[in-house]
Inverse folding.
C-alpha cells in the first residue's frame, strides 16, 4: 500500500517562528564593532614569542599540558632524591676516611719514638725454642694421644 | 528591531544584488582595507549569527562563534581565491567552527531564550502563525519557542544544519550543497529525514 507523500507545510510554517528570533536591538552593531576592534588590534609582540606560542599550544591541549607538568615534577623529585643520595654517600666516605686515619694515630706509637728507640739484639736464644727442645726430650704431654684410639701395626708388618 | 533572519521568500545573500561590489570589497580587504572588511561583516554577520544561533540555541555561543568566524575569515582572506562567493566561503568557515564547537559541547545544551526578543505584538505574521496554524491556540509563545529549540537540539548536527539553512534561512539546496561540500541529493535526503524527526517531536503543535 502506497503511503501518501509527506506534507511538511505545517512544520515549515512552525519553523518560520524560529526565523523571528533575533537578538536585542543594537546587538549586531556592537558585534561588528567588537569584530573590527579585534581585527584591527596590533598583534602583541610578546604573543609572538616562542614562549607564548608554546603556552598557547599547551592551552589548547590541557591533557598534554598536565602530563608534561607531571613529568616535570617527577623529574624534579628524582633529581632531588639523586642529589640527596649522592650527598649521603660522599658523607659516608668522608667518615670512613676519618676512621682510617684515626685508628693508627691512637693505637700505634708515634713513628718518631719508634725510629728513635734503640735496636736491641737478643743475647740468649728465645724462650720458645728452649721449651720446644724440652718437649722433644720428654715426649708429648700426657693425654695428647689417646692410645686406645691410635692405629698400631703388628710387629711383623713393620718395615725394617 | 533588527532581524537576524533572512526572508525565506528572498533567500539571496545581501551581496548577490551587487556581486561585483563583493569582489571589490574582498580585494580591498585582501590589501588590508579595514573599511572594506567592515562592510563585508555588516553584510553577512546577521546571517552568520542566525545560523550559529539556530545551531547552538544559545545567544552567547552564537555571538562568540560569529566573532570567531569573521576574525578567522579576515586572517585567511588572502588565501581566498574567489572560486566561490565570499558568502559561501565565510559561511563554510562558520559551519565548520560551529560543528567543532558542538562536538566539544556534546550533551551540554544551554538555552538562553530570555536573551532573545520575540516581540509577537509587533509582528502580525507571527501572531497569525501562532493563533491560526497551531492546534493549541492557548500556547505560550515562549513555550513554543522552547519546544522548537528542544526539537532542533534532538537532531544531529548535520540535520539541524540543513533545516537551519533551508527552512529557517531559506537557502536553496545548491547553495547548501556548496557550503557543506555535498550534492543536492544528499541535502534533500537529509532535509527529508530531519523534517520527519522534527514532525515527530513537534506533533502536539502540528495537526
Amino acid at each position: 500500500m502506497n503511503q501518501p507523500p509527506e506534507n511538511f507545510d505545517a512544520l515549515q510554517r512552525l519553523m518560520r517562528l524560529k526565523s523571528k528570533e533575533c537578538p536585542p536591538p543594537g546587538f549586531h552593531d556592537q558585534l561588528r564593532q567588537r569584530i573590527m576592534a579585534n581585527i584591527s588590534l596590533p598583534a602583541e609582540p610578546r604573543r609572538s614569542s616562542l614562549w607564548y606560542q608554546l603556552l598557547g599550544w599547551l592551552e589548547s591541549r590541557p591533557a598534554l599540558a598536565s602530563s608534561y607538568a607531571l613529568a616535570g615534577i617527577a623529574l624534579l623529585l628524582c633529581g632531588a632524591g639523586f642529589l640527596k643520595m649522592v650527598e649521603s654517600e660522599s658523607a659516608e666516605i668522608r667518615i670512613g676516611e676519618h676512621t682510617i686515619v684515626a685508628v693508627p694515630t691512637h693505637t700505634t706509637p708515634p713513628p718518631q719514638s719508634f725510629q728513635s728507640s734503640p735496636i736491641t739484639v737478643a743475647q740468649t736464644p728465645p724462650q720458645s725454642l728452649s721449651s720446644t727442645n724440652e718437649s722433644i726430650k720428654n715426649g708429648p704431654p700426657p693425654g695428647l694421644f689417646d692410645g686406645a684410639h691410635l692405629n698400631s701395626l703388628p710387629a711383623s708388618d713393620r718395615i725394617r | 528591531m533588527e532581524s537576524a533572519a533572512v526572508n525565506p521568500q528572498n533567500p539571496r545573500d545581501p551581496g548577490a544584488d551587487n556581486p561585483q561590489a563583493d569582489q571589490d570589497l574582498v580585494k580591498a580587504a585582501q590589501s588590508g582595507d579595514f573599511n572594506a572588511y567592515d562592510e563585508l561583516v555588516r553584510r553577512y554577520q546577521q546571517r552568520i549569527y542566525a545560523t550559529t544561533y539556530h545551531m547552538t540555541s544559545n545567544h552567547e555561543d552564537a555571538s562568540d562563534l560569529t566573532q570567531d568566524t569573521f576574525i578567522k575569515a579576515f586572517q585567511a582572506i588572502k588565501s581566498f581565491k574567489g572560486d566561490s562567493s565570499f558568502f559561501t566561503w565565510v559561511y563554510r568557515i562558520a559551519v565548520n567552527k560551529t560543528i567543532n564547537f558542538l562536538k566539544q559541547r556534546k550533551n551540554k545544551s544551554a538555552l538562553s531564550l530570555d536573551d532573545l526578543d520575540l516581540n509577537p505584538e509587533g509582528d502580525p505574521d507571527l501572531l497569525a502563525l501562532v493563533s491560526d496554524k497551531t492546534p493549541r491556540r492557548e500556547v505560550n509563545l515562549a513555550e513554543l519557542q522552547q519546544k522548537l529549540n528542544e526539537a532542533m537540539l534532538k537532531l544531529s548536527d548535520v540535520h539541524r544544519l540543513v533545516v537551519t539553512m533551508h527552512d529557517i534561512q531559506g537557502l536553496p539546496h545548491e547553495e547548501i550543497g556548496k557550503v557543506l561540500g555535498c550534492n543536492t541529493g544528499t541535502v534533500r535526503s537529509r532535509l527529508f529525514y530531519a523534517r520527519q524527526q522534527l514532525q515527530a517531536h513537534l506533533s502536539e503543535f502540528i495537526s
About this structure: Confidence is low (pLDDT under 50) at residues 1-12, 109-115 of chain B. The domain at 116-205 of chain B is CATH 1.10.10.10 (Arc Repressor Mutant, subunit A).
